[in-house]
Amino acid sequence: MKRSRLDNWICSLEGLAELTPDALAALQLERLNALLARERARGGFYSGLPARLESLSQLSSLPFTTPRQLAENAGAMLLCSQSEISRVISGATSGTTGPAKRVFYTERDIAHTVGFFAAGIGEFTSAGDTVMIAMPFSGPFGLGDLIARAVESLGARALRTGVARTYSSLCAELDDERPSAYIGMPVPLLATLRYYVNLNGRLPSLRRALISGDACPLGVVQEIEKLLGGPLFPHYGSREMCLGGAITCPAHEGMHLRANHILAEIVSPEGEPLPDGEWGELVITTLDMEALPLIRYRTGDRTRLLPGPCPCGSCAPRLGRVSRLDARESFMERLDSALFPLHGLLDYEARLLPGRLEISAVTLDGRDGGLAAAAAPLLPGAEISVSCRRAEGGDIPSPRKRTLL
Question: Per-residue pLDDT for 332 more than 50?
């Protein structure tokens, strides 16, 4: 099996002849100590930490960084001058009522992310392909633009579809441009495929897809894979890791971490490190980020580090399926996994009240199709009400992350 393109990218960027466990560990420790030295010299948020560690195992002795601390101390965490900042992403801190998080990137940070994106996209895209990018386009350093730059670096054509497009518009673009690959959120992709097949009686040109930007419940993934006729390429990323964190290789057994730039730990609810294979919270330390590196940042995401070597031969650590620790978001993922196997469903909103679940759905024919029965095992004894309407060409697949009302 062909080794992950991520290995080639890391070796090229870091000047390594081969990516081995020893070489990767040495690089990570070197980067971590360089970061600690920068923090000490800068006198910023992390300046009270040790100036040097003797081994990666000592990382677990350092304190965690929380989303609230990031929101309240972004200025103190910044390790470069304001003139070097190329991009700022601001957004509300999940689960808190405090200030919004602000994350900063330099041009170099962004260039690294584009290279990482290209390594992942190159697993299913070749020169001459057309790739539909159904992600937000918010300017020259926005997510959609960075993905398009990565696609074009491979000699492929970037179709800047964006979000908030109607089903009719998306179907017309699929017919006119005939993209072979898709990059976007999972539920909008499933909804668009189902609408297209219902309208045309055949599948569109799409055969491969990278899904990202939201949780990817197993039930949703399986339905998309049935329509595409092959496995998906999930990607994991967040603003805190400069948008790119882990990509899928040809083995389709987990997502390889961007290990030259990200140190990952899995911890228990009490904050104790967990061994490979056990599920817990993902904690990241971002290495070699110029603008705003983070040390032991608690992501609020639940996953595990897969044990053993990957069949592709890469030694880069692998994440398993990623979900949210938040109970309401976790319930939404399980609800999606239960409901989307109903083939007529395109989208729905759900309101969870004490002893009651209200579902408002959009389906191909306007009928229920068994939504209440599918949801019932998740809420034994609860009252479940369902309202449905028929999908129209002017409807828009929701561009927002899925959450309970």
Answer: yes
